[in-house]
UniProtKB/TrEMBL annotation:
Transmembrane segments: none annotated. This is NADP-dependent oxidoreductase. PANTHER family: PROSTAGLANDIN REDUCTASE, PROSTAGLANDIN REDUCTASE 1. CDD domains: PGDH (cd05288). The keyword DNA repair does not apply. Residues 21-333 form the Enoyl reductase (ER) domain. Keywords: Oxidoreductase. It comes from Streptomyces xanthophaeus. GO terms for molecular function: oxidoreductase activity, acting on the CH-CH group of donors, NAD or NADP as acceptor.
Amino acid sequence: MTNRTARAVHLSARPDGFPTARDFTYVEGPVPEPAPGTALVENLLLSVDPYHRGLMDGGEGGFDLGAPLEGRSVGRVTASRDPGLAEGDLVFHREGWRTHALVTLGRDGTRKLPGHAGVPLEAYLSVLGGTGLTAYAALTRTAALREGEDLYVSAAAGGVGTATGHIARLLGARRIIGSAGSAAKVAHLTGALGFDAAFDYHDGPVGEQLAAAAPDGIDVYVDNVGGDHLEGAIDVLREYGRIAWVGAVSLYNGDRAPAAPRNLFEVVHKSLRLEGVLVRNHTNLQKELEDLLVPHLRSGRIGTDTTVAQGFDHTVDAFLGLFRGENLGKMLVRIDG
């Protein structure tokens, strides 16, 4: 039976730098009733993502104070007045950070999940969700990775980073190099995930460590960090190399970093290409992504690569943990604990 109390996380204050638990409030209320054209979904899994931090500053497209935050979620329909959704359907939508949501099929990315046999639910918010789709678009469209090329990915132990490693290997990358924020994560990259080389960016200048890991250079860089990681990659990229810029975690909490890499003119000198990646521009690739990955998820060749916090009460803790480096792969919250 559906729980008749709905809970949500509200943003109660604009974070100043690194967010704290005091910036959020857990709010209870009645479970909403679906109006014509909507369906009630009881959420099962929530995604917390680094990009949420920027939205907390407000402005156009940002989060409002005193209102539920939003994020990717997977849930089950418990009541429906939407002709496209039936009770029991599994749904992907963007009304997360709450236990219950009203959704409409096709609006704001809401879609029924195919329920691939043998594929864990967590996959739909990690390698088969926006995380995996970002990595896939970065590699196949933005950077156009070719078989036999060498790749570097920063924040490689995070959600997009681990997905990038898996997909690059399936696409035939020759060498895959990653950077991360601890020795344990470096060991995870080269051990469990099969990266050819990895380094801890705390151990020395990123450019020097990357040059040592890739003495012959790289062809593609998938950037999740910006700052000195981007500068180091520009130095090591070969002529006609490509940069798919996904995120800049080094800047999300107001951290001081150079406005631009000091070697930015090398983009001209080496005929490099640098292009940003927004996953919302690549939703047409969803089936292509699933066709590639589902067989390998079923066989166990790749995993979902998730860190799952248990219980809705840990939503804020999970989000803050992203910036403390507490996740391996995608950080998720399982509602029921």
